[in-house]
Design brief:
The protein is an alpha/beta fold and 319 residues long. The chain contains 10 helices and 8 strands. The protein has 2 domains: 222 residues, Spore Coat Polysaccharide Biosynthesis Protein SpsA, Chain A, CATH 3.90.550.10; 78 residues. Helix 1 links the parallel strand 1 and strand 2. The radius of gyration is 20 Å and the shape is globular.
């Protein structure tokens, strides 16, 4: 068994050198390949990736995919992959040298694992005082206990995550497609990695985290500011309530699911009213203010998509 690394990037030319160097120098005893997907970039990402890799002597290919959206590009990469496991490597992830070997070994010895996550580490730098409180949204830090299954509807961040390809292929054959696109060009939309995790659990597999899998997450300095973080949280909230469609087993009838969505909307509405009256005098208050409003408008925009997702998921996972 071996692994296909899929690296989807949009305008990532300036970040690729460090990321690709770490991949080239993986110390692995297993066969593996690298698939770089230029997802509709407007810079020289495609040429830069080829220039860095041309003399590397690794098994690689660089492809263009013009439909914007990380998950669309990732599915394209899955279709090209020739090995049993998939590793999702973002264009700012600097994998430790043993990342591939460790991940493949764990997956081979634990057939119940459908997805395996690692630990993102921010390189040492001066950080604003608010950052530690909210760093999880940046795909940083531990994601659970070492090799212990995550709880129902838990999820792993996509950066540095391994997937069992056969599960994703089987889902595709039965009509599964990502309802959420993840990042699309400059948009900070999110949720595709969470969808994968929900689907994998519904297929009867475990999500696990290993503290032996480590990578540096080389986040651009301009992203470590609070205005950016608020935009990030707004993007994450923009998927509401589509991900609720994966809870169909809790609501066997569509009318019950609609009631659940309505109850969720009332909770958001209360949050909007509450944050209207409370003073915005802390970072957490600012986050709450942005998130409940983003969810309010997302609900109005995504309600029908959530219902369609509910019906689709019932068909796929109960067939």
């Amino acid at each position: 068994m071996s692994c296909s690394i899929i690296l989807c990037t949009y305008n990532g030319a300036k970040k690729l050198q460090t990321t690709l160097d770490a991949i080239i120098h993986q110390d692995s005893t297993y066969p593996w390949e690298l698939i770089v997907i230029d997802n509709n970039s407007s810079d020289n990402t495609f040429a830069e990736a080829k220039a860095i890799l041309k003399d590397s002597k690794i098994d690689f290919r660089v492809e263009k995919f013009f439909r914007p959206g990380k998950m669309f590009a990732f599915w394209f990469g899955i279709g090209l992959a020739k090995y049993d496991f998939i590793l999702d490597c973002d264009d700012d992830n600097e994998l430790f040298k043993n990342y591939l070997d460790t991940g493949i070994s764990i997956l081979q010895s634990n057939p119940k694992i459908g997805a395996l996550g690692g630990c993102g580490i921010l390189p040492r730098q001066e950080l604003p005082e608010w950052f530690d409180q909210f760093s999880k949204s940046y795909a940083l830090g531990p994601q659970g206990y070492h090799l212990k299954p995550l709880p129902k509807f838990g999820h792993l961040y996509g950066a540095g995550c391994f997937y069992k390809k056969s599960i994703l292929q089987d889902l595709k054959k039965r009509g599964f497609e990502s309802l959420l696109s993840c990042r699309k060009e400059e948009e900070l939309s999110s949720g595709g990695d969470v969808e994968f995790c929900h689907a994998i659990q519904l297929e009867g597999y475990d999500l696990m985290y290993s503290d032996q899998l480590k990578f540096y997450h080389n986040i651009d300095k301009q992203r470590i500011n609070f205005e950016y973080y608020l935009k990030l949280k707004k993007g994450i909230s923009s998927s509401f309530p589509i991900l609720h469609s994966y809870r169909f087993k809790e609501f066997p009838k569509l009318i019950d699911f609609k009631k659940y969505l309505f109850s969720s909307f009332i909770t958001v509405l209360k949050g909007v009213l509450k944050t209207y009256w409370l003073p915005i005098n802390s970072h957490q208050r600012q986050v709450d203010y942005v998130v409940v409003r983003a969810k309010f408008w997302a609900f109005l925009r995504n309600y029908q998509a959530a219902l369609e997702g509910y019906k689709r998921n019932q068909k796929i996972f109960e067939s």
